[in-house]
Write a structure and sequence with these properties.
Elements: E1 25-35, E2 41-46, E3 49-51, E4 55-59, H1 66-73, E5 81-86, E6 89-91, H2 95-98, E7 102-105, H3 117-126, H4 136-146, H5 162-173, E8 180-184, H6 192-207, E9 211-216, H7 219-223, E10 228-233, E11 236-242, H8 244-248, E12 253-258, H9 263-272, E13 276-281, E14 287-292, H10 307-316, E15 323-327, H11 331-339
Parallel strand pairs: 4-9, 4-10, 7-8, 8-9
Antiparallel strand pairs: 1-2, 1-3, 1-5, 5-6, 10-11, 12-14, 12-15, 13-14
The structure holds adenosine-5'-triphosphate.
Amino acid sequence: MTTTTGAGAAQAPAPARVESPAATSAVRTQGLTKRFRTGQVAVDGVDLHVPRGAVYGFLGPNGSGKTTTIRMLLGLVRPTAGQVHLLDEPMPAAGGRVLPRVGALVEGPAFQPYLSGRANLARVDAADATVDPRTSRRRADEALERVGLLAAADKRYRQYSLGMKQRLGLAAALLRPRDLLVLDEPTNGLDPQGTREVRTLVRDLAEAGTTVLVSSHLLAEIEQVCTHVGIMGRGRLLLQGPRAVLAERRTARVVVRTRPEHLDAARTVLVRLGLVDVRTEPGAQVAELTAALPPAPVPAGTSAPGPQDVAAALVRADVPLLGLDVRHPSLEEVFVELTGEGFDVAR
Ligand SMILES: Nc1ncnc2c1ncn2[C@@H]1O[C@H](COP(=O)(O)OP(=O)(O)OP(=O)(O)O)[C@@H](O)[C@H]1O
């Protein structure tokens, strides 16, 4: 794994800037696109917005373009088109100034296999021209402690488990205070306890004022710590916003069971009531219809049909009601619906 720490970039004194009122983004992209030489469009016109102070869950199935997007943010991959601003500064032009304020954990070989974890961190630290070399050891040990790796600090990197390697990558990103942390699948290779620790770490860092962009193909792993989410599917950003946008997508469906010969009449009733996405499943004895209920909350002054209205309307239309339920999709189902594939499916 590589840690991009802004190392080597001599930090020019920040010029006096008049911050515009809109200067509140940790990450902002416009039309970010990457077409590889193979012709594959891995990232397709992505407009990311990560507000300052957010924990932004960057979610999507394997192969949906998260890593390529992150690499473009950090200047590791050149975009085919589009713009990137980090901490309200244009990239890559302001990289020398901005990248020291950005810690990153992205995949790729970077650590020396025959050096210990601590010695590897010392190398990363030494490459950062903006820090005091005399306090290197303290920084390394504090970072190792933070990720629970102090006890294994003197072990060689090649003897580390995948989880330990991942922790060392995190430690490298934490060698100095950051305004923005970009973590690509930080829980890869970690056991459930390690995953919980990463979540706690992310929460602590955010509380201390660091904006965190964290990617995952596993919704449940990071959903709990996010204040914002962005969902990728096939190179496109399908949904973005405060975490509540996910809940809003959890449209409940009403499930109606009736006799097969009344299926068409029941369908007409549901459509007349204004329900959408009506699906029918004829059966020999019992036919089933499902339809989307309007999402709550309903705007003031309007009344959206609820399950009781559905029942009443069916009875009025003489449709025998053999059963009526309301089904709420899980967040996982919302994702599958959004991305059009299982959350673990590679392209
Ligand atoms: N260097 C490359 N050349 C050609 N295609 C690439 C290259 N890197 C990535 N891709 C393709 O671009 C698509 C997006 O890959 P990317 O790694 O960005 O997805 P991801 O969402 O990060 O997936 P994962 O969770 O598996 O890392 C994939 O289809 C991948 O095969």
